[in-house]
Amino acid sequence: MSAATVPKVKFSNGRSMPRLGLGTYESLAGNVERAVKYAIDNGYRHIDTAFFYQNEKEIGNAISEKIKNGTVTREDLFITTKIWNNSHAQDKVVPMCRKSLANLGLDYVDLYLIHWPFGFQEGDELMPKDSNGKLLFSDIDFLDTWKGMEECVRLGLARSIGISNFNSAQITRLMAAATIKPVNNQVEVNVNFTQRPLIEFCKQQNITVTAYSPLGRPGNPNRVNTLDDPRIQTIARKYNKTSAQISLRYLYQLGVTPIPKSVTESRLKENIDIFNFELTPEEVTTIDAVGDQKRIVRFEEAKEHKYYPFSTTF
Ligand SMILES: NC(=O)c1ccc[n+]([C@@H]2O[C@H](COP(=O)([O-])OP(=O)(O)OC[C@H]3O[C@@H](n4cnc5c(N)ncnc54)[C@H](OP(=O)(O)O)[C@@H]3O)[C@@H](O)[C@H]2O)c1
């Protein structure tokens, strides 16, 4: 797979993003640097991280090495990071963006996202809790956070800005207030939870959708693993592909951008090798019926927050 064959999607601001990226949540120290280098060597140009993942420095090391040794230029790469919930105050956004840039060793990120619509108590703690273990919230309005995000664009720190885990009502509210519009919403989308209403809604708003947990976190012991579903396996045999490749291709054909995470070399190669076949409409319909339409990522500890996004349908 050469990088040139990964298609791109155009944002409403004219910039574009490769239609497959590398996820890095829980890609821990020691693993992630090697994984990112191997991914870049094998055609990945889009890397997804977040301040919360605490791996920006290692990812930055990998990027810097691949630029220095001439494998890629900075302009070839598309790097996303996200502001965490404990920094939602408008005046915290630019300093936090600069902190992520320093970690990554970059002058700008391609996409800066608000990780969640709800905020936590401001400070250094990523998950600030009271003595009973209850999360401490802040009620900072994400519209204020957005003003800080817009400043990141004006200062050239972020080429594009967007959101993550926002529901349709929150998007409507943000679109009405934003001077610089969000170009992307990163949400859970996988075979189990297909999010068709939200994808359609975002499309109408000119907002692209990135699909997180695109493989449904197959190692999760509490869930049915859709990669083992016999309907997916039958389709996989037809194309001489794996269930993971069929699942990622399905998401690609849904119009979203999957960002599968792996630190395993064989899987990194496998997950990008999805652009040389096409599922038929009948196969798409078959896969549509596999999931129970329940999300994996719920962040229930925050469900009492006034900006918790998952209490409504989409
Ligand atoms: N915005 C948000 O709130 C949010 C939330 C969740 C995730 N994300 C982003 O989305 C990315 C992906 O989501 P995720 O990490 O939750 O889940 P995922 O990508 O659906 O699943 C990752 C798991 O699948 C395994 N895997 C990877 N390729 C495979 C293959 N071909 N066959 C079988 N197993 C495979 C990985 O194992 P190995 O690594 O051991 O190979 C890892 O255990 C994250 O890493 C993060 O960047 C964002």
Word description of this protein:
The structure is a single chain. The protein has 314 residues and is α/β, with parallel strands linked by helices. It has a single domain, classed as NADP-dependent oxidoreductase domain (TIM Barrel, Alpha-Beta Barrel). It contains 10 helices and 11 strands. Strands 3-4-5-8-9-10-11 form a 7-stranded parallel β-sheet. Helix 2 crosses helix 3 (90-104) and helix 3 crosses helix 4. The protein is globular, with a radius of gyration of 19 Å. The site of NADP nicotinamide-adenine-dinucleotide phosphate (NAP) has 27 residues, from helix 9. The site of NADP nicotinamide-adenine-dinucleotide phosphate has 27 residues, from helix 9.
Key attributes of the depicted protein:
about 325 residues; alpha/beta; seven-stranded parallel beta sheet; two-stranded antiparallel sheet; about 35% helix; binds NADP nicotinamide-adenine-dinucleotide phosphate
